Design the sequence.
């Protein structure tokens, strides 16, 4: 385990009170845990601004499975980005929402620039009704 260092943080009373209510709702056991998570999130967000930073992403798609050629295009895309390429499709999950719509979650691993480019091309495919991307940096800055 890493060596811990103690620091002091000065906050005005109202801000601290709002922070305490927030972390209580979120289930934190201490201010230190919440502050550590905030720092990690900010450092991760900073790494994600670098196009060559390594990351993983989940691309969420809602689409009509009757859309011409969309399902085949999604499958073909996933098979062309397996191990051996710089951008990997790690996994996918397909869920039938109703008689027309499906949810597809495609997990990507690679450089953030390549992930964003592929995610945008997937979301913009004809037949996709709604798409979102959630990206997390996977390497710490040294």
Sequence:
């Amino acid at each position: 385990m890493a060596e811990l260092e103690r620091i002091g943080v000065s906050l005005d009373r109202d801000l601290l009170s709002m922070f305490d209510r927030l972390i209580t709702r979120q289930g934190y056991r201490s201010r230190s845990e919440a502050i550590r998570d905030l720092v990690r999130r900010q450092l991760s967000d900073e790494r994600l601004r670098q196009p060559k930073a390594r990351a993983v992403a989940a691309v969420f798609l809602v689409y009509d499975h009757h859309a011409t050629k969309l399902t085949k295009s999604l499958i073909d895309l996933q098979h062309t980005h397996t191990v051996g390429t710089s951008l990997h499709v790690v996994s996918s999950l397909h869920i039938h929402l109703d008689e027309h719509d499906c949810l597809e979650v495609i997990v990507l691993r690679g450089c953030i620039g390549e992930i964003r480019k592929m995610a945008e091309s997937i979301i913009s495919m004809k037949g996709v009704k709604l798409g979102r991307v959630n990206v997390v940096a996977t390497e710490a800055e040294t």
Remarks:
- Residues 13-47 form one domain.
- The first strand starts at residue 54 and ends at 64.
- The CA atoms of residues 64 and 100 lie 5 Å apart.
- Strands lie at 54-64, 88-96, 101-111, 128-137.
